[in-house]
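User: Here's a structure from my thesis project, written as structure tokens. My advisor, Dr. K., wants to see whether a designed sequence matches the one we expressed. Can you design one independently, without my sequence as a hint?
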């Protein structure tokens, strides 16, 4: 939360309006570098899980850092191609992709990671003797919330590990080469789970004759709340992966590539969301500060009870007043639109120096899964996005939304040939 001074934030809020997303190039580059340095195994590649934050400028920075891509939709693939990635650098994992999606991916040369046996059949129906990777559900998962845990018997993701023999049989029938085995057990997984799943994935993969790579997914956690969250010991993690892969390649008698797909780790700390206090009020139980943004611009607290660091800059330059407990509420007509909340919906007030109308709220660590999960509920305009470049210069990378944007797909407002009153 420290990449711009408070004085500059006040200036930017005045110039660009709030709510406002601000992203920091240096932080993104730093996180890419942390990852590159942690893994010494030569035959590896880091694929940015671009669902975390998919802005063009961010994709271009990540590309410049030499990362490749994990994509989960055709539009993500196209956004990455627009940012200059080559199709061969993109890996596609999507539950329930359709034939037209797979046909496009095969045509342009994007590697498909099949998440079910039916999706292997889909490849077979499009192209004979093709190749793919398969996503394995290793029977257990881990994440910061059960909504982000993607392994184990309750998860929809991947092919359950006890059905891998079936996958091999189908692959043989269809002439499909399985060249990679992938697992992603969840977002926000700790070191212990990571390493255990790495071992399981390597074990499952060693019976695949055409194996060229192992993909261990993403899930590296970041510290949102320094009082409760533990950082991933990145060097220990990287050293363990590297040692295992050296050994594995030796045992397999050839070099097997290692891929990982971090999203949150690359992007989370690079972003802040600015809002402005519109009202301060109280009930017999709580003090509320209401800001002009909400779960439409960062759905994470409402969805998972996620903690984001929040502070306020006094707009009138006063020195901090006495601390009080506040619940920070958004501006939507929805009770659950609060930023300080537990995962079961219990309000979690936090202490702040006295908050006044007009103060600027700075919410930190919103780089991952906030901008990319934003929506236009209550027909609210989407915020503009700024990038602070590596020289510290702020520029607009996405303009603020308007009513036209909110209504852009409605037939009533789209000129259409069949409508008499619209002439082309
Ligand atoms: N690979 C695959 C196949 C994934 O599905 C994901 C995330 C990743 C990699 C990247 O995971 P990461 O390194 O970011 O943890 N909306 C939730 C997170 C959902 C993650 C979905 N898949 C949140 O805000 O916490």
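Assistant: Designed independently from the structure alone:
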């Amino acid at each position: 939360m420290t990449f711009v001074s408070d004085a500059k934030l006040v200036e930017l809020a005045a110039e660009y309006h709030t709510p406002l997303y601000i992203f920091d190039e240096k932080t993104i580059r730093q996180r890419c570098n942390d990852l590159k340095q942690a893994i010494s195994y030569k035959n590896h590649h880091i694929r940015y899980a671009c669902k975390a934050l998919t802005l063009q400028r961010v994709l271009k920075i990540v590309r410049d850092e030499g990362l490749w891509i994990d994509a989960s939709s055709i539009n993500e693939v196209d956004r990455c191609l627009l940012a200059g990635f080559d199709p061969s650098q993109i890996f596609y994992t999507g539950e329930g992709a359709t034939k037209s999606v797979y046909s496009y991916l095969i045509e342009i040369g994007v590697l498909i990671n099949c998440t079910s046996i039916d999706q292997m059949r889909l490849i077979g129906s499009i192209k004979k003797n093709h190749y793919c990777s398969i996503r394995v559900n290793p029977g257990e998962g881990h994440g910061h919330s059960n909504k982000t845990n993607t392994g184990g018997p309750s998860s929809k993701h991947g092919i359950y590990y006890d059905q891998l023999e079936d996958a091999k049989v189908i692959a043989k029938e269809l002439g499909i080469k399985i060249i990679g085995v992938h697992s992603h057990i969840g977002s926000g997984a700790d070191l212990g789970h990571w390493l255990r799943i790495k071992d399981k994935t390597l074990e499952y993969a060693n019976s695949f004759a055409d194996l060229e790579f192992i993909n261990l997914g993403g899930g590296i956690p970041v510290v949102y709340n320094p009082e409760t969250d533990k950082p991933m010991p990145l060097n220990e993690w990287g050293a363990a992966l590297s040692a295992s892969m050296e050994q594995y390649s030796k045992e397999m008698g050839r070099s097997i590539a290692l891929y990982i797909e971090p999203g949150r780790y690359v992007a989370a700390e690079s972003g802040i969301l600015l809002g402005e206090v519109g009202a301060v009020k109280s009930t017999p139980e709580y003090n509320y500060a209401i800001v002009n943004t909400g779960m439409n611009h960062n759905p994470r607290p409402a969805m998972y009870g996620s903690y984001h660091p929040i502070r306020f800059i006094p707009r009138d330059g006063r020195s901090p007043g006495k601390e009080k407990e506040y619940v920070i509420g958004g501006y939507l007509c929805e009770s659950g639109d609060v930023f300080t909340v537990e995962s079961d919906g219990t309000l979690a007030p936090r202490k702040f120096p006295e908050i006044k109308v007009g103060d600027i709220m700075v919410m930190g660590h919103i780089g991952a899964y906030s901008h990319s999960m934003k929506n236009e509920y209550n027909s609210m305009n989407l915020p503009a996005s700024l990038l602070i470049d590596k020289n510290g210069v702020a520029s607009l990378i996405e303009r603020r939304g308007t009513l036209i944007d909110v209504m852009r797909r409605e037939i009533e407002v789209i000129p259409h040939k069949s409508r008499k009153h619209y002439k082309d």
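When you compare it with your expressed construct, this may help: The chain has two domains: 86-262, 268-406.
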